[in-house]
């Protein structure tokens, strides 16, 4: 016993709390008991402290009264004889049905607002009844009385953990969260006193239901009201001590959620008719699939996630291929039910994705931690991207002009938002850098174009991330300055095809498949 005995009137306080209708565990809470083991073996704890003597089950009507009536503070939540076993079984059934494969969990309890009112009511009464124990020592309810939720976790959560074969994480750091919601039939009636007690807070909330989403009594609002309420004023509207409840708190539902699982990799896109993300305009789908869906569908199915968020290091247009090492990406799997994957299983997922699509290929697939996401976006505008463009010019290009492009280094461009994306991006002027480029004439251009008077060439270019390559080539009606045509002597140049050759971001780490 860590605290019983610190209160000079502990025996008297205990007997009085019992006479009011407090269960044994709540008595221990108000006596300041901080040893979690004391609540698991409450009868033995009280007998050892001399608070209780071993009694026959038919020892008197007052004991039957306490056994069958809900506690005036916890409303039966901590009373084994009322519904603890039933609640535990319902929680266990819900968790097992949800089927998560994690090893530990955090349990959070949501209680009706009546618990706050009743706890405050009892505290004020004890301060009046036992000033030597509660008032003169300047003890505060929230720091002295052990939290009801804490005792519930000490006594009930271990039963849940054993039944679902998972460890309880009392530090609230587990990725798996089990939210338990309890309800009380008398909650609305008991809380209605707040409308008169604090009309300045709750009448306003009542008239502005939309603003508060119809949630009139919130824990935060009630806490604020009680902290600023004089004891005499509180007692005018709510009885102190609280009355014996006519019904106990009951189980409503549980909510099981798991923090996101993050899987990263790099992808190649070999199609010129495939968008990176689903392309839907005005509710109408424009393409059958996307890079995101090809990759995500397999991952979502394997993890049994409820949803998925796809992010990549930039994006390519529908008609642009991504070759070379591919583009780094990450999939955030929302509320995954399966989170345990071996390296071999992740490799198998990668193989399945690659077998199921000829348009997209994935490499270096791996599970990462959330804090590694910053590497995907770090230096977004400083990354160098390498492109290869097939260009066409209807004008004669001066001899040596293509070769001279190779001598240009770190050319600064001024690019206004392209006309083709103005419908979805704000108008702005951005400064971007072309780090290097080189160009050469295409061999046998007549294979692609029957017009022998045109010049076709390839442009190998490295630029700052975020540079609009197409607009640099054709100028976008003068919105990009300078353009490739200007650099070649004022000719008209257009782009026929564009490939991403490399994104110079060494992330995620390369996976050596031979080593698993």
From TrEMBL:
<dbReference type="InterPro" id="IPR039894">
    <property type="entry name" value="Pus10-like"/>
</dbReference>
<dbReference type="GO" id="GO:0031119">
    <property type="term" value="P:tRNA pseudouridine synthesis"/>
</dbReference>
<comment type="similarity">
    <text>Belongs to the pseudouridine synthase Pus10 family.</text>
</comment>
<keyword id="KW-0413">Isomerase</keyword>
<dbReference type="Pfam" id="PF21237">
    <property type="entry name" value="Pus10_N_euk"/>
</dbReference>
<dbReference type="InterPro" id="IPR048742">
    <property type="entry name" value="Pus10_N_euk"/>
</dbReference>
<dbReference type="GO" id="GO:0003723">
    <property type="term" value="F:RNA binding"/>
</dbReference>
<dbReference type="InterPro" id="IPR020103">
    <property type="entry name" value="PsdUridine_synth_cat_dom_sf"/>
</dbReference>
<dbReference type="InterPro" id="IPR013087">
    <property type="entry name" value="Znf_C2H2_type"/>
</dbReference>
<dbReference type="Pfam" id="PF21238">
    <property type="entry name" value="Pus10_C"/>
</dbReference>
<protein>
    <recommendedName>
        <fullName>tRNA pseudouridine(55) synthase</fullName>
        <ecNumber>5.4.99.25</ecNumber>
    </recommendedName>
</protein>
<dbReference type="InterPro" id="IPR048741">
    <property type="entry name" value="Pus10-like_C"/>
</dbReference>
<keyword id="KW-0819">tRNA processing</keyword>
<dbReference type="GO" id="GO:0160148">
    <property type="term" value="F:tRNA pseudouridine(55) synthase activity"/>
</dbReference>
<feature type="domain" description="C2H2-type">
    <location>
        <begin position="102"/>
        <end position="125"/>
    </location>
</feature>
């Amino acid at each position: 016993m860590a605290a019983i005995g610190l209160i000079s009137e502990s025996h008297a306080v205990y007997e009085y709390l019992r006479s009011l209708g407090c269960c044994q565990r709540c008595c221990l809470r108000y006596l300041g008991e901080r040893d979690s083991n004391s609540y698991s073996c409450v009868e033995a704890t009280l007998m050892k402290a001399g608070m209780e003597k071993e009694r026959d089950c038919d020892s008197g009507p007052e004991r039957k009264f306490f056994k069958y009536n809900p506690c005036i503070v916890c409303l039966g939540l901590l009373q084994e004889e009322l519904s603890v076993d039933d609640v535990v079984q319902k929680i266990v059934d819900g968790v097992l049905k949800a089927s998560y494969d994690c090893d530990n969990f955090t349990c959070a309890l949501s209680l009706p607002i009546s618990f706050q009112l009743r706890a405050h009511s009892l505290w004020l009464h004890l301060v009046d009844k036992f000033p030597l124990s509660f008032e003169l020592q300047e003890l505060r309810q929230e720091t002295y009385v052990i939290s009801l939720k804490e005792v519930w976790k000490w006594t009930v959560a271990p039963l849940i953990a054993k039944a679902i074969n998972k460890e309880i994480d009392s530090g609230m750091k587990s990725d798996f969260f089990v939210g338990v919601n309890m309800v009380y039939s008398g909650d609305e009636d008991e809380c209605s006193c707040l409308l008169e007690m604090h009309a300045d807070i709750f009448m306003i909330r009542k008239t502005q239901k939309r603003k508060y989403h119809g949630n009139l009594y919130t824990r935060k609002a009630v806490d604020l009201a009680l902290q600023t309420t004089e004891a005499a004023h509180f007692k005018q509207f709510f009885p102190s001590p609280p009355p014996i409840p006519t019904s106990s708190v009951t189980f409503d539902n549980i909510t099981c959620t798991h923090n996101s699982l993050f899987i990263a990799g790099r992808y190649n896109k070999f199609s010129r008719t495939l968008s990176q993300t689903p392309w839907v305009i005005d509710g109408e789908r424009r393409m059958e699939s996307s890079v995101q869906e090809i990759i995500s569908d397999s991952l979502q199915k394997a993890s049994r996630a409820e949803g998925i968020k796809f992010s990549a290091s930039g994006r390519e247009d529908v008609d642009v291929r991504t070759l070379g090492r591919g583009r780094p990406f990450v999939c955030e799997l929302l509320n995954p039910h399966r989170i345990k994957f071996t390296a071999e299983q992740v490799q198998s997922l990668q193989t399945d994705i690659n077998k199921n699509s000829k348009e997209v290929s994935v490499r270096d697939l791996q599970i990462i931690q959330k804090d590694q996401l910053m590497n995907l976006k770090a230096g977004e505008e400083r990354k160098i991207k390498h492109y290869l463009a097939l260009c066409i010019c209807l004008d004669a290009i001066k001899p040596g002009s293509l070769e001279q492009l190779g001598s240009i280094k770190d050319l600064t461009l001024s690019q206004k938002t392209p006309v083709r994306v103005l419908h979805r991006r704000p108008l702005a002027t951005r400064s971007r850098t072309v780090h290097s480029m080189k160009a050469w004439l295409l061999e046998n251009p007549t294979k692609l174009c029957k017009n022998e008077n045109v010049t076709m060439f390839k442009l190998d270019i490295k630029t700052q991330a975020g540079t609009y390559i197409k607009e640099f080539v054709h100028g976008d009606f003068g919105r990009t300055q300078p353009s490739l045509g200007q650099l070649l002597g004022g000719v008209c140049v257009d782009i026929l095809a564009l490939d991403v050759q490399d994104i110079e971001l060494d992330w995620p780490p390369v996976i050596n498949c031979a080593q698993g």
